[in-house]
Every structure is written in C-alpha cells, then in structure tokens.
Amino acid sequence: MRILRAIFGHGSGRIGGVIVGVYLLIAILGLVGLTPHNPITQFRIDRLHAPNGAYWMGTDLFGRDVASRLMAGIGQSFTVAFFSVAFAALAGTVLGLAAAWLGRRWDGVVMRIMDVLLAFPAILLALLIVTVAGPGTWTSVVAIGIVYTPIFTRVVRGPALSLKAREFVDAARTFGSSSFYIVTRHLLLNLVAPLTVQVTLALAWALLTEAGLSFLGLGTQPPAASLGLMLSDSRNLMETAPWLMIFPGLTIMISILGFNLLGDALRDILDPRMRRAPA
Amino acid sequence: MTPLLSVHDLRVGFGRKPQANEVVRGVSFDLADGETLAIVGESGSGKSVTALSINRLIDFGGGRITGGAMTLKRADGSLFDLMGATEPQLTGIRGAEIGMIFQEPMTSLNPVLTIGSQIEESFRLHRGLTGRQATAAAKDALDRVRIPDAARRLKYTPNQLSGGMLQRVMIAIALACNPRLLIADEPTTALDVTVQAQIMALLAELKRETGMSMIFITHDIGLVAGIADKVMVMQNGQAVEQGELNQILDRPRHPYTQHLLQDVPHFANGSAARVDGQRDKGEHMKPALKVNGLVVRFPLKSNFFSRASGAVHAVDGVDFDLMPGETLAIVGESGSGKSTTAKAVLGLVRSTRGSFSVGIRKASAAQSAKPVQMVFQNPYASLNPRLTIESILAEPVIATSGRVDAGTRARMASLLERVGLPANSLQRYPHEFSGGQRQRLCIARALMLNPSVVVLDEAVSALDVSVQAKVLELLVDLQREFGLAYLFISHDMAVVERIAHRIAVIYAGQIVEIGDAASVLSMPKHSYTKKLIAAVPTIDRRREHFEIDTRQVPSLVRPQGFEPAPARWEQFGGDHKARVEG
Question: In this structure, what CATH number is given to the domain that contains residue B581?
Fold first, then answer.
C-alpha cells in the first residue's frame, strides 16, 4: 500500500502506473475473451473497414475486429513478457547469488558464460534459440528468458558481493548461521529493491523482443493475435489501411513508455539516497 | 585591528526549505591573524558545516547559507565579503587565501595521479609555475611537511604511502600557496594515535613558521589542548560556549562543556583503571579463553600459477588467557594484527597454527555450540537494515537450535530491557535507532546465546564521545551481572583504561607487553608502549611539543618459511611482563 501511494505521489510514476494498470486490465479482458468481437472469427463482408461505430479501430483483411485482436494480442504479449521475465529474474538471481557467494572459480565460470550471452544482440540470440527449438509461445518465453538472464545475474551479483562483505554477514557467521539463511535473509532481502526496478524495466524489453519475434513469424502463430504479428500483417496494406499499423504500433510504444516511467519511478522511490528525510 | 575572519550570526540550512531545516543556527566568531580556533562538538553539532560555509564549499554539498555575514581580510588589507562573492571570485580565494584539509587523506587524493603532480597543480593554478619550477616547488612543499626523501616520493601514487604520509601530502597541498587561513576538518580522526601526534606536532610547527591562522575542527576535546588559542563548543547548531583555551578547559561554564570534560573518557595514565574483579592469585580458575601460539598468515601470490613467494604475518605467535569476568584489552595501531586475532578466535579467518580452548561455564547445548560472540565496530553495518529487531535477535537462536519459542521471546524482552531499549523495539527496524542504541542492540544480540566470552572489536570507536561513556558503563554492568569475559580490541587508550583489567599491547603481530591495566598504563616498559601512551592527547598537556618521529611500521611481509625468533620476556612484578627488545 505504501509503495502504491509513493508511486502515485511521483510525477512519472503516476503516468507510468496508470498506463501499466490500464494495460493489465485490457490484457486480462483479452485473455478471458471479454472483447467486443471474437478476435479470430472472420467477418468476410466487413473486410478492411476504416474505424467506425461498430469496429472502433477498423477491421483487417479477413474482416477481423482490430480492437478485439489488439486486446487479445496485449493479453498474449503480456503473458509471454511476464513468464519470460519471471524466468530470467529467477535464473539470474540464483546464478548471481551463487556466483557472489561461492566466489572464486564459480564466480569466474558463471560470469564468463553470462558475458558470452551478453555479447549477442538480444533479438539475434532469441532468434537462434527459437530457430533451434521451433516457434511457439513457450519457446518464445524460454528464449526471451535466456536472453535477459545475464542482465539479472549482473544486477544481483554486484550488490551481493558488497553485501557479503558487510559486517552483518560476518556477525551471522559468528552465530553459525547456515549459508542458505545468510544468502536468503541477508543478501536476497536487501536485493529486493534493485530487482523490482529491474523487473519493471525488463518487462518493457521483453514486450519489445516478443513483438520482434512475432513480427518475424517466430513467436505467436496465426490465427492467434499478438502485437508483432498484427504489425507484420499490416505491412502490405500500409497505404490502403493505415489503421492496421497505427494502432498496434501505438499500443507497443505506449506500453513500453509506461513500463519505463514506472521503472524510473520505482528506482527513485526504492533508492534510499533519493528518499526524502521525514520532516 | 580588524580580524582576519569575522563571522556573524551564520545560519545554514539544508533541503528544499533551508530556513526550516537549519543545522547551523546563528554562529558568530572572530579570528585574528595567527590565531587558532578549535571548534569542538559531536556529530550533528554543525561544526563541519560551519567550516565548509567559510570557503563556501557548502554550496556543493546541498547546503544553503540562509543568513548572517562573513568577511575575510585579504592580504592587501581590503575586506572581502564571503557571502556575496561570485563563484569565480571564490575560486581565487580557495587554496590561495583559505586552505583546507579533510578527514580522510586516503580519499582526498586522486589515486591515479602521482602525488607530485597533485601538489604541482596547486602551484600551476595559483602561482602560474610550470615544468621544473613547479616540480622544485612541490619538492620544497614536501620538505616543509617533513617527508623524508621528498624528491623520490614525488613520483609515488597515493596507494604507496601510509595514511599519515598522505595527510602530510594533503597539508603540503593546502599550504602550497601560503594561505593565511587553514581549515582542518578532523584531520587526524582517521589516523592512528602515534600518527595523530605527529600530524598535530607538524601543524603546530607550521603554524609557528608561517604565522597563519587556523580553524581546527574536532570531536575530541583532548586534542585541542595542544594547538588551540581559542575554543568554541558547538551543540545542535549553536555555539554554546566560546573563549580562551585555558578558560574553557579549567572553568567551563556551560553544562555541555562540563559534560564533555568530565563524563567522557579521558586518559589518566592508569589512575582511572578498574579496581573491581581483579585476578585472585591463589585461586586456580579455569580460563574462559586460552590462546596458545596463535599464528595467522596470508600467503602472497603474484598470480594464479606462481607459487607463494612469501606471506603476510598478520599474527605471529600470540598467547594469552582470559578469566571469566575479566576484560583483556588488546591495543595496537592499525595493521598490528589486533582485529585479525579477534577474527581468528571467532573462526572468521583461518589460523595457520595455534590452539584455543574455551572454558564452558554451564553444560548446555547452545553454550557449547557458540560460547564466543562478537560485537562489531560499526553499528550501522552490523545490523541487516531489512530485518526487524525481532528477526535480528532471533537469528543466533535459529542458527544454533533452529527454533524460536516462548523462552526465546522472554529472553529477547529481558535483554532489551537490560540494555536499556524500549520494549516496543521488537517490531521496529534498525534505521529507527541511533548509533548508540544500535550498538546496544548488537550487544543484546551477542548475549542471546548466553556466551562466556564476548569479543568487542572497537565496539565504541564509531560512537560519539558522550555515548561511548554510557555504552562502556553498560558493558561493565553486564560483565558483573553475567560474569562475562571480554576481549576488548581498541586503539583508544582512554576507553581501554575505563574497561580493561589487563592490557596486551600488540605490535607487528606480536604481543610486546602484557599485564594488569594500572601497571601497564602507569609504568609502561616496552618502548612501543611508551610511545603509544605518550601520543595520547590529554587536556593536561597544553601546548606540548611532540618529537616528530617518522619511523614507519615495519612491513609484515616475510619471505617464505620465515619464523620469528622466540620471545624473551622480562617480568616486572605481578603478571606484568614485556618483550625484551633486541
């Protein structure tokens, strides 16, 4: 509750929070099927209608309602983004904590592997994994998750190393606390703030990567809707039916803006140095 | 005659509303040519903010001067308004007219530039010297602060010099342009006591040579005796008392000044040593902790593949025993191995050789598991900020028996009460407590397992002087009540005198003198102990001249396989003995 109030007290946090909240609502509606029309049913008679009262954002080449497809697409893209970021955050945190706590050779091995993964551009690495595993929703989740794991590993390892050298960790050792207890209570608990910020920002990148994969035909498969897929379908009709491109494009742009604004706000709020002293 | 610096009703605030958040509230003083003003106060008293306001460095630290007047008499006799000055004007004043040295010499210098180039910079900027001339001037500056072998040291980078040497370099830089006012902000707080004495002596000498004025900021009223002409005592942003040195020290009028002079630990050459709980000669008690021939070495490797070429002999053959209810203080300077000894006893560093035996008072599972507990130096770093006090106090119990039951909760409540914290503390977080309260929490946590030995590693060094006294009192009370044995690691002789029954002086990894506190402090036998005690600042030694001793602590790096010669001891009555110097 306190954190929500803080977000809405923060200038960009308010905008970002509202955007992300609205998107989440739309995503849920899209996922449970509460859309104005069926996003997959083709109304051949209403092909390529411009936006009007019945079809708020027009229809596509097969007479499908763009607004409904957008809602379903947001649901699909958010699902992939959430699961892939959850995967990346979990894997990255475990690897980062292991590297920092075990140190020496483990640290070297883990971090060099992460360096190799980071050396590939994100979309290229995701493409490689999807090509090998075959396209589909869950392969996109795993691919995007692997791509963003190194970032979480780095975000966790650095602060974990400095926490490890703090006196409260030494104190815990003098009581004979177990490694698991020290890593979870003393390291992980102090990493919640940077991880929260990183998760929010990673959601924006994951959305973009998912859109990119779908655009290239390697993510969500038709006839299911996804933001990248809708953009890809609109390419040939850009001049006759610009609404096919404008609405998905704006949807992607605004969602990423929203997550970035929220991430920036969280960074400010959770950073103790930025915290205003109580008057 | 107009004073060199005149400050009238200075007010400084921080934050968005500086008027509402004032930390300096109406400070006034005058400083004449060649005079030294000492500003004394505890943390948060506004002493550093006052000093930083004089050369307007406070503008960069987020502060705003909200009121008052400050005028500086320039070299040509004209008056310069420090309040209304523009930033370019101030740049000409800083360094040239007002020099400044800071607390941390290690972080005040740029680590990638040689000290020579950093001193030359000052000459280049303010005097326009270049090339050879600047180098020659830098060498003179180093000679002036008594750095031996100055020409060669110019090419050193900061990491190659000790803290005391670096503070000399900082002084050399500050004095490069012959400022008429030097502001020294706790210049010796980060340094060892013998180095502190050297720096104080150097400052006093330089002041005599150059005739400059000085503002000397310190939390230690014992230090001002050697250097100040006037003293200003600050508390909560106000000057509660100011006047001539002798008047302040001998006839303090304000209760806070009296408190600083009387209640705070001051060194008294062994006369304030504890008389309770002395060892009974006849009784053969089992020691609570016995350390035999402790050796800790860290092998030196130049890289992964090469064999160890030598070792750092951090602790080189230390023996002592500690009786129940007794405090053994281990004193020494940084790098002497005192903290490593403590960590080895606790198993935080692996000892190379030697044995410990820990006497267990009562046979219970928790006690035999962890009979030695520790309180760390920094109460801000030794409590996890994300855990409630309840979780923090429960941790030792969870670590040893794995369960928190009603008995544990009762013990938490009684210990909290015993260390003087409110009962509702359990649900709060560490940041809600002050430094002194946090250290009380650390003490309570260390006592959760009912230990027989508590290691206190500089446990009061990070606290303000008046809080120190209270925590020491608490420690003494707890010792009597629970029969605890303390291993008290400290560099501060005044604190040690208040709490120790016995003292071991450690130098270069070896004990050079050990014995009962009163005897060691009043009749030191080893030359190092004598030097250490002579360097302790006290209010009784006014304007004393220290001999400047630039001997460095010997390197602890030894070639592979090196073994120290066995110690020969000389006895001086009772159990007081000192190592025979070779």
Answer: 3.40.50.300
